[in-house]
Design goal:
about 300 residues, TIM Barrel, 2 domains, about 20% strand
């Protein structure tokens, strides 16, 4: 493994000098001592930061990655939320960004101009290296469609994609709560992969697991997903375990059969089923098994809809 580059800020340099100041009396500081002080401090910083974010991830803003996605390939992320916290109208117990109240932010949303400039800068760098993304993905620290300029930013992103990496797809990962807004729907119709969440159609399970902030009628959500007329990909998290001493296992027929009926009604272009891949803010959750996901995937294909599983 290559050693990471170490960037020394004035603050870090000052702390390193403090490390050198406590050398034994009579010891003459050498370059080796300086390197040891720097790398010792760096190791402490890395370990401390890793421990802080081990169970949750807060993504940089407005651009992050590229990262390797289980479902999408090499993905360049667009985060329309602040880079120091989370803003979402769901508070899912499995969210890799943690619970909402763990990551409050007072930072403003990135502007349309900041997103465009950041995305073009990164695409130019990737093009120069000959390492273009497979997909540009709207994801990050919350619900991307809540940004007031989401439609305009989608248009900018498609324009930049066409200029720098015309073979790449543009994807949006959304919880489907704001697809009733005309401008949001129109923007989602323009992207290649309009990926919308539907973990269940059981209202009690939604309140327990997705924990929406405000009113949500799952039947209305299904009707709005159906209105995309096939230009939508349904993404569903399957898992086991408990939360607050209640089961969150949605892999049984009790949940899968009604969900399948909703999938047939929506008639999406495809379905993505997946399970927990990273640590979650709720520690009592368990992955669905490969066999469970494969079985569910087969049942989706049996009704004539393409389905992929990520384990």
């Amino acid at each position: 493994m290559n050693k990471p580059e170490l960037f020394i800020t004035p603050e870090v340099l000052f702390l390193c000098l403090l490390c050198l100041a406590v050398l034994p009396p009579g010891h003459v500081a050498t370059a080796t001592d300086g390197k040891k002080a720097i790398f010792s401090l760096a190791n402490q910083i890395i370990i401390s930061n890793f421990a802080t974010v081990m169970s949750t991830i807060i993504f940089p803003s407005p651009i992050f990655g590229p990262v390797k996605s289980r479902r999408l390939g090499v993905s360049l992320g667009v985060n329309l939320l602040p880079g120091d916290g989370k803003l979402c109208n769901f508070d899912c117990i499995y969210c890799e960004c943690g619970f909402n109240d763990q990551h409050h932010t007072n930072t403003a949303l990135p502007t349309r101009q900041e997103v465009r400039q950041g995305l073009e800068r990164q695409l130019r760098l990737m093009a120069d290296k000959g390492e273009l993304p497979d997909v540009i993905t709207f994801a990050g620290n919350g619900e991307p469609t809540c940004h007031p300029h989401f439609p305009e930013i989608v248009a900018d992103t498609i324009e930049l994609r066409n200029s720098y990496c015309p073979l790449a797809k543009v994807s949006v990962l959304s919880n489907a709560t704001l697809i009733d807004r005309t401008k949001v729907r129109e923007a989602l119709m323009l992207v290649d992969n309009n990926i919308q969440k539907l973990d269940t159609i059981d209202p009690t399970y939604i309140r327990l697991v997705n924990r929406p902030r405000g009113y949500l009628d799952v039947r209305e959500t299904i009707a709005r997903l159906k209105a995309f007329k096939g230009h939508v990909i349904i993404q569903t998290m399957f898992m086991r375990g408990t939360f607050n001493s209640q089961s969150v296992d949605n892999t049984s027929d009790l949940f899968v059969q009604p969900w399948l009926k909703a999938i047939a009604e929506i008639a999406p272009q495809s379905v993505m089923v997946y399970t927990i891949d990273r640590e979650t803010p709720a520690s009592t959750l368990l992955k669905a098994t490969r066999e469970q996901l494969d079985s569910i995937c087969q049942r989706v294909e049996d009704i004539g809809i393409a389905c992929s599983a990520s384990y």
